[in-house]
Design goal:
Mean pLDDT: 93
Number of strands: 26
Strand content: 25-35%
Shape: globular
Radius of gyration: 23 Å
CATH architecture of the domain at 8-180: 3-Layer(aba) Sandwich
Distance between the termini: 43 Å
Largest sheet: 9 strands, mixed
Strand order of the largest sheet: 2-1-10-9-11-12-13-14-15
Structural class: alpha/beta
Number of helices: 14
Low-confidence stretches: 1-5
CATH class of the domain at 8-180: Alpha Beta
């Protein structure tokens, strides 16, 4: 039987797969395996609990926790209750989490026990804080998402609204909530079945070792469950544990960022990984040295994915057979059901070989940024999602990222806008001006560097970093600080960041990693 027949969207997964696959293993997490029937019943219970707590259609249910079975409860429960799931990056600072809670207007925040103190501290900074709901533990005065009798999930009637909201780094220092709808994910499920590395089936065992508060993790989970695969979820990435799990459980598929693949190669593990069919990767291209080593170690297909949260992760892919030679610098060809183009300043497509902005169009594009129509209008123009990446298309239809139109830095798979870091550093005693750039990193692809102009009493590099530590997430902190007499500027006073970046990228064939 084709397990994906009549699967209209990810909201159908709990009920439909519980009927079809009942006792088949769906999710293994924390050493415990849950069948598709149990997954559906837990989603049904969570939906009822959220309803009892007053969740209304269209409202956001926030989640703050590590990868766990309660993530599945909350995500599916919110979708079945006609709400919208809002997983929050737990690596963010208290101030950043508080902003998301305030901006999203989420009435409920579901929290795992190890992050309860962080949640309480963030809620204390919100004028109208959400009600804290516990996940997997009891705490007096707080309802629990996974308490009560299990009940079968109902098959949703008709299309839903927004089902996922993910906050992305902001160009002005404030994150934006990208809304993804039931229709976006209906299109995703159709497209993903036609994409190498995403074409899972019921015989696959899929390992999730990336955070599932990102679109990539969410997509791998949903595509896997829609296909009837067995999903094994790690709480966090640990290279030795990933290798051991592949050998022990016969893992066939996984998705990793290049920095993680590199960590696996240097883990020292001698585990048998011959079960692997494919490894998907994204967020940055893979170096030839890492790819060659990984191909030799794993002996499986590698597929690169290029996309954005705002396009439900879809965009382009570099197929296994194209992982060679000059094409290693390519992000591939468009997904089925999506269009890509290189646009000029006038918004019109450019001929092959000319540099312009990469744009994406299709049914997977965000419905917009939550409570931010100006940012939505700026990002999506004439139906095209502007990625902020400068690139070219060759005569064979392959796309190549050359640089960034905007200043975003991608470090270890996380997007970082310099404005966020600059805002955090601006008040540091002794700092007169600051510019933040991304420079090459063998481990992370890119890393954050702060270029600082000081006053008479100059702080140390460590003092500058420590100043920002309580204001932004640790992964956004500068790895290094350089002090210079003055920032280079053009005639209108704009800082010439490309000039600051140039010495670090000299001799490379592209200006991003």
């Amino acid at each position: 039987m084709n397990n994906q027949a009549s699967m209209r969207s990810v909201r159908d997964i709990p009920a439909l797969q519980a009927q079809r696959l009942a006792d088949r293993p769906a999710v293994t997490v924390g050493g415990e395996t849950f069948s598709y029937a149990e997954l559906g019943a837990r989603a049904g219970r969570a939906c009822a609990n959220l309803g009892a707590l007053g969740l209304k259609a269209g409202q956001r249910t926030a989640w703050l926790g590590m990868n766990s079975i309660q993530w599945f409860d909350t995500g599916f429960g919110a979708a079945l209750a006609d709400g919208c799931f809002l997983p929050i990056n737990y690596r963010l600072s208290v101030t950043e989490i508080a902003y998301i809670l305030d901006h999203s207007q989420a009435p409920l925040l579901v929290v795992s026990e190890d992050l309860l103190a962080l949640a309480q501290e963030a809620c204390a900074q919100v004028a109208a804080p959400p009600q804290i709901v516990t996940a997997g533990f009891d705490r007096p005065g707080h309802p629990r998402i996974d308490r009560g009798e299990l009940r079968p999930a109902a098959l949703p009637e008709g299309p839903g609204g927004d089902i996922l909201q993910l906050y992305t780094s902001g160009t002005t220092g404030r994150p934006k909530g990208a809304c993804l709808s039931d229709a976006n994910y209906a299109a995703f499920l159709v497209a993903s079945r036609q994409i190498p590395g995403f074409d899972y089936d019921a015989a696959d065992t899929v390992l999730i070792a990336v955070p599932i508060f990102h679109v990539a993790g969410f997509n791998v989970v949903m595509a896997s469950l829609a296909a009837g695969s067995h999903v094994i979820v790690h709480r966090e990435f640990e290279a030795g544990e990933v290798m051991a799990t592949i050998a022990r459980d016969g893992v066939t598929r996984t998705f990793l960022v290049p920095a993680m693949i590199n960590a696996l190669l240097h883990s020292g593990s001698t585990a048998d990984v011959s079960s692997m069919r494919s490894i998907g990767y994204g967020a940055s291209p893979i170096s030839e040295a890492v790819l060659t080593g990984a191909q030799a170690r794993f002996g499986c297909d590698f597929v690169q994915y290029y996309g954005m949260t705002e396009s439900a992760g879809g965009g382009s892919y570099l197929a296994p057979q194209d992982h060679h030679g000059a094409l290693l610098r390519s992000c591939g060809k468009p997904w089925a059901g999506l269009e890509m183009a290189i646009l000029g300043p006038d918004g019109l497509p450019l001929p092959d070989g000319m540099v312009g902005e990469i744009a994406i169009r299709g049914a997977m594009l965000t419905t917009g940024y939550w409570r931010n129509p100006e940012a939505t209008a700026d990002a999506i123009r004439n139906g095209w999602l502007h990625t902020g990446d400068a690139g070219i298309r060759d005569a064979a239809g392959f796309y190549f990222v050359q640089d960034r139109v905007k200043d975003m830095i991608v470090s270890g798979g996380e997007n970082i806008y310099p404005a966020e870091v600059e805002n955090a550093l601006a008040g540091c005693p002794g700092v007169v001006e600051v510019a933040v750039i991304g420079i090459p990193s063998e481990r992370w692809g890119e890393e954050v560097k702060a270029i600082v102009v000081t006053g008479p009493e100059a702080p140390s590099a460590q003092a500058v970093i420590d100043w920002a530590r309580d204001r932004i997430a640790a992964y956004k902190l500068p790895k290094t600080v350089e002090f210079i007499p003055a920032l280079p500027r053009n005639a209108s006073g704009k800082v010439l960041k490309r000039e600051l970046r140039a010495p670090y990228w000299e001799g490379r064939d592209r200006s991003v990693s």
